Amino acid sequence: AKKEGGQPKKKPAQRPATSVKGSCPHSVANFSEALVERIDLQLKVDFEEQVLQGECKLTVRSIKPAPHVILDTLALAIESVTDDNGEPVHWEVEESPPPKSNFGQSLVIALPASKTTTLSIKYKTTEKSTALQWLTKEQTQGKQYPLCFTQSQAICGRSLLPCQDTPSVKAPFTISVTVPEPLTAVASGEPSGDPESSGNFRTFRYEQKVPVMSYLIAIVVAHLESCQIGPRSKCYAEPGVIHAAQKEFQDIVEDFILKAQEVVGGAKYEWGSYNVAVMPSSFAYGGMENPNCTFMSASLIPGDRSLTPTLAHEIVHSWIGNLVTNAFWKDFWLNEGFTRYIERRVLGKIFGPAFRGLLLLVGYNDLIKAVDMLNQQGTPGLTRLEPEIDEIDPDDAFSRVPYEKGSLFLFYLEQIVGGEQQMTDWLGAYVAAFRERSIETEDCKQHFLKFFKGVKRIKEIDWEHWLHGEGLPDFDLSSYVDRSLVDESRALADSWLNTSTSDVETGHMKAQQWMLFLDHLINAVVAGTSISHDTLASMESKYKLSLTKNVEVSFRWCLLGCKCKWPVCLDWTEKFLANHGRGVYVKPLYMALKAFDAERAISVFQQNRGLLETWFLFDKQESNLCCFPICFSMLQNLKDRFGLKCLWIGRWPVLLR
C-alpha cells in the first residue's frame, strides 16, 4: 500500500541496499546513505481532538549518492513535503517488509542532488500515535485541566514525528509547542526565551544543542507550577503536588550530579540544566531520562526520600544512554546496565558501602524474579545480555535483565580489574571515547580489553557466558559485598519463616531492607516454602505494611499475598493496580493475581476505568476492556494470559472476554 503526495505517481527509483553496519533491525531509515543531522519541530496541541498538528524540518546530509531519504513513521497523517525553497517534493508512504512492517511504515522522500537539503514535513498525529498520552481533567491530580505527555522509548518516536527512529542516529533539535492558556509546555531542552501569547494560546520554545536520539524528544503539557530544587535544577508539577516534590528533591539533585561526575572519572555534565517533571502515578515508568527534564512518576514521592535512587539513576543517564548510547536495542544493557552500576556507586559514596551492598542484593533478587518470569513465559533467550530481538518490538523484550544482569557484570569486572577506582578511570576514558556516539557491545568490549591490557585477570572473563548465556550468571555476588544491612533483612525473614514471628527491632530499617525482607519471603514461596495466612496476618498487625507509602514495598507485599493466595491481600492489590501504571509492577502483579483468582484479576482489570494514564476504558455496554495505544503491546501480553480476544473499535484496541 502506498500514499503519495507532491508530484504525480511514478515508479520509484531503485534504492540501493544499506550496509549491515548502517541499518537497524527496528528502523527502515537509510541513515548510512542519507543522515538527518538536525530537527526543527513545531507542534500545536489540540486537546479536543487529542492530536498534535506538526511541522517537522529535517536537515539531511547525503553520505553517499541516494535518490531518497527513508524515514520511520507510525500512525501519522502526512500532509505535504517541501524543500528549502518551499517547492513540493515527491514522497510516498510505503508498507515496510516484514518484520519491520510490525514497527511502522516508510516515508520515502526524494532527495535533490545537493549534499545537504532541508525538508519540511507537515503532518498530524492520529488516535493510534503510540508516543502520546492524553488525560482528561478528571484523571489529573488537580482535576481542572487536561494533561498530555509523550513517551517515545523505545520505537514510538516515529508516531510523534517522521524521523530516523533508531538509537544509531543522533541530532540536535529545536521544538516549539503551542498550547491553550493557562497550560504550560515543558520539553527536553533548554528554554529559548519567554513564552509568547497569541489569543488564547501560548507558545513555548526549547533547544537541545547536544545530539540525541529521536526517543529523547519529549514534551509534557499540563497545568504546571515550578520551583527551584538546586542551583541548576527546577521541578515542574501540578499545584497539588509541587510542595511535596520540592521537599523530596530539594538539594539532593545537585549532590547526585556531582557524585555521578566523580564516578564517571570527572566527565563533564554537558546539558546545562537538570530539571524534573512529576508525572501522574500511572506513568508507565518510574522515571524517563529526557535530557534537561527527567519525567518522574508521582508514585516515587513517598515523603521520606526512600525512592530517590530512581532520581540518581535518571541523572546518571546524562552520561550513559543519552551521551554514550547503545547503537541497537540488542545492546540496551550498555544503557541501563551501566547506569544501574554507576547509580549504585553514587549511592555508595553518599550512604556507605553497606548501602551499596544492600542495593546490589535487592537488584539480584529482582534479577531472579525477572529470569523466572521470562522462563515461565517461554522466552529464556531474553535473559541474555545481548539477546536476539531483531524480529520483535524492543518493548516486548523489556525486563530488568539488562539493568540487573548488566550491572552485575560490571560489578564482576570491578573485582577483576582491582576495584572502584580502576573502574572509574576506565569509565572516564569510555565516556571521552564514545561521547555523542552510538556503539555496540563489541565496541565496549574492545575498549575495555585495550584499557586493561596490562591486567592479567582479564583473561578470566568468560564474555560468552556473560553476554550470551541464559539465566543467572555463575557469580556469587554475596561473597563480595558488605552484607551488614542485608543480613539484618535476611535474619528477619528467616525468623518469620522458621517461627512465624519475630521480636527483632525494625524501627531503624531502611526501605530497601524491607524490600529485601519481602523478596526473601517471595523467593521462599516460589521455591516451595509455605507461609500461612495467620503468619501474614501477624506481619500485617506488627508492621502495618499495607499502609506504607513506599510503592516498592507495597508492590512486594501485594505480590507476596497473591503468591500465598491470601484473600486479605485482594483489596490492597486491587487498590494498587488502580493507582500505579509502572510496567515492572503491573505485569508480575497481574500474573500473580491471575494465578490466585483469575475472575478477580479480570474484574480488577475492568474496574480500572478512568483511573490510569489512561490504560483502561470501557465501551457503552461496559463489557469490553479497552486500552490507550501506548499500552497496547503490554495488553497484548495480558490478553494472551487472560485468554481474551482483541479487536479495534474506533480509536481503541478492545479486549474481549
From TrEMBL:
The reply on keyword Disulfide bond is: no
Identify which cofactors the protein needs according to its UniProt entry.
Zn(2+)
Give the InterPro entries listed for this entry: Aminopeptidase_N-like_N (IPR045357), Aminopeptidase_N-like_N_sf (IPR042097), ARM-type_fold (IPR016024), LTA4H_cat (IPR049980), M1_LTA-4_hydro/amino_C_sf (IPR038502), M1_LTA4H (IPR034015), Peptidase_M1 (IPR001930), Peptidase_M1_C (IPR015211)
Q: Does the keyword Cytoplasm apply?
A: yes
**Region of interest called Disordered, as start-end residue ranges on this chain:** 1-24
Supply the Gene3D superfamilies for this chain. Answer: 3.30.2010.30, Neutral Protease Domain 2, Peptidase M1, leukotriene A4 hydrolase/aminopeptidase C-terminal domain, tricorn interacting facor f3 domain
Q: Name one Pfam family in it.
A: Peptidase_M1_N
Q: Which domain of life is it from?
A: Eukaryota
> Which keywords does UniProt give here?
Cytoplasm, Hydrolase, Metal-binding, Metalloprotease, Protease, Zinc
Domain spans labelled Peptidase M1 leukotriene A4 hydrolase/aminopeptidase C-terminal: 484-616
The principal localisation class reads cytoplasm
The compartments listed are:
Cytoplasm
In the record, the note on similarity to other proteins reads:
Belongs to the peptidase M1 family.
Name used for this protein in its record = Peptidase M1 leukotriene A4 hydrolase/aminopeptidase C-terminal domain-containing protein
Originating organism: Durusdinium trenchii
